[in-house]
């Protein structure tokens, strides 16, 4: 599964060929982060969500690796997982020479071991999974003690919105974590390269 928030809200993720989308994926401002202002906005947010010390970050549904690259630039060791081999190839190229590894696999059940990561980072993937609660419980098992989930999600569109509301995601996460906070992202147009009116947010949950 790949972050696909830049596509129309009524375009279901499961109906898209992500290998075919890979070549143009970074054209969306919040995917490729090619605009220095958009890139800086995401870097600042990511720095506030991740630990200050160097740690192991698992980026699920990593796409072409844009967030992985920001995390690596901030000194973290990154493992990225995506179901589309073409996306993984682009991520490997984008982070060549960095302390990063990329795997082809299912974001809901990534091919990695338990208690290996300090952070599980997921952007615009959880809402499209058939059982988000089950995925969250599995991801919790991948964290070391005191690790954190960083979940960037939203409810996209105004006519027929798709996504997961912050209240629902928070309710799913709270039983798994000691501390949970929600940060609204809709009111920062630099993150998206435009002004948005729908619900966009991050849940940062620290494991007990």
Automatic annotation (TrEMBL):
Residues 58-151 form the Methyltransferase type domain. Keywords: Methyltransferase, S-adenosyl-L-methionine, Transferase. GO terms for biological process: methylation. Signal peptide: none annotated. It comes from the Bacteria. CDD domains: AdoMet_MTases (cd02440). GO terms for molecular function: methyltransferase activity. Pfam families: Methyltransf_11. This is Class I SAM-dependent methyltransferase. It comes from Streptomyces justiciae.
């Amino acid at each position: 599964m790949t972050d696909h928030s830049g596509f129309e809200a009524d375009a279901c993720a499961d109906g898209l060929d992500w290998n075919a989308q890979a070549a143009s994926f970074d054209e969306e401002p919040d995917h490729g982060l090619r605009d220095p202002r958009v890139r800086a906005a995401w870097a600042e947010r990511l720095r506030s969500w991740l630990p200050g010390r160097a740690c192991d970050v698992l980026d699920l549904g990593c796409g072409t690796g844009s967030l992985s690259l920001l995390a690596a630039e901030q000194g973290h060791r990154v493992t990225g997982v995506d179901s589309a081999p073409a996306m993984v190839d682009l991520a490997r190229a984008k982070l060549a020479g960095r302390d990063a590894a990329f795997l082809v696999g299912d974001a809901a059940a990534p091919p990695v071991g338990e208690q290996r990561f300090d952070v599980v980072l997921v952007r615009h993937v959880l809402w499209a999974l058939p059982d988000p609660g089950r995925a969250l419980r599995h991801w919790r098992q991948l964290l070391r003690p005191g690790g954190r989930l960083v979940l960037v999600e939203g409810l996209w569109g105004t006519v027929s919105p798709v996504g997961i509301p912050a209240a629902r995601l928070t309710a799913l996460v709270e039983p798994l974590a000691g501390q949970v906070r929600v940060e609204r992202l809709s009111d920062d147009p630099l993150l998206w390269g435009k002004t948005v009116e729908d619900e966009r947010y991050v849940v940062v949950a620290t494991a007990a």
